[in-house]
């Protein structure tokens, strides 16, 4: 006579890993899309001035930045310790602003060109004469919408 044996629990079933590569690529794609890259590597020292009344710019894609400040320590042997302009990743002079604005305006859609705003990010200790020169060059380039970047002051109520 044959003996029937009860099957004992042979352990748990293996997890199906067929969809694992899909999940990994979906996560990779999510992080690639949601991560923002740093646009410009600052070559100047920038301590922004403080302000109490600030407004946030609505469309950052329409903003072009001009940085003004003393070159960082590694660039001071080449460019000196006087405040300099930085346009994108390059040091520049006031005379270069006009061609820079034209180039930035050409890279925008035609409908957005009139809405272009130039944001001046200047160091706290930058002399006003340089800012005035930058504003004159922007006026000559027909870039009349200008904003000044600052950081918000934490006011203590009295």
Automatic annotation (TrEMBL):
Transmembrane segments: 20-37
Subcellular location: Cell membrane
Pfam families according to UniProt: ExbD
Presence of the UniProt keyword Membrane in the record: yes
Biological processes, Gene Ontology terms: protein transport
Protein keywords: Cell membrane, Membrane, Protein transport, Transmembrane, Transmembrane helix, Transport
Gene Ontology cellular component list: plasma membrane
Matches recorded under InterPro entries: ExbD
An annotated Gene Ontology molecular function: transmembrane transporter activity
Keyword S-adenosyl-L-methionine attached: no
Membrane topology: Single-pass membrane protein; Single-pass type II membrane protein
Similarity remark: Belongs to the ExbD/TolR family.
Protein name from the UniProt record: Biopolymer transport protein ExbD
């Amino acid at each position: 006579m044959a003996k029937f044996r009860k099957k004992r629990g042979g352990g748990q079933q293996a997890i199906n890993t067929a969809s694992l590569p899909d999940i990994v690529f979906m996560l990779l794609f999510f992080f690639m899309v949601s991560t923002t890259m740093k646009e410009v590597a600052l070559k100047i020292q920038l301590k922004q001035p403080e302000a109490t009344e600030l407004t946030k710019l609505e469309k950052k894609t329409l903003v072009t930045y001009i940085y003004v400040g003393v070159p960082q320590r590694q660039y001071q042997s080449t460019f000196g310790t006087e405040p300099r302009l930085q346009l994108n990743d390059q040091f520049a002079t006031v005379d270069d602003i006009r061609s820079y604005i034209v180039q930035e305006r050409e890279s925008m859609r035609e409908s957005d060109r009139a809405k272009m705003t130039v944001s001046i990010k200047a160091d706290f200790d930058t002399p006003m004469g340089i800012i005035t020169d930058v504003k004159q060059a922007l006026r000559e380039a027909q870039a009349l919408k200008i904003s000044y970047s600052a950081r918000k002051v934490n006011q203590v109520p009295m």
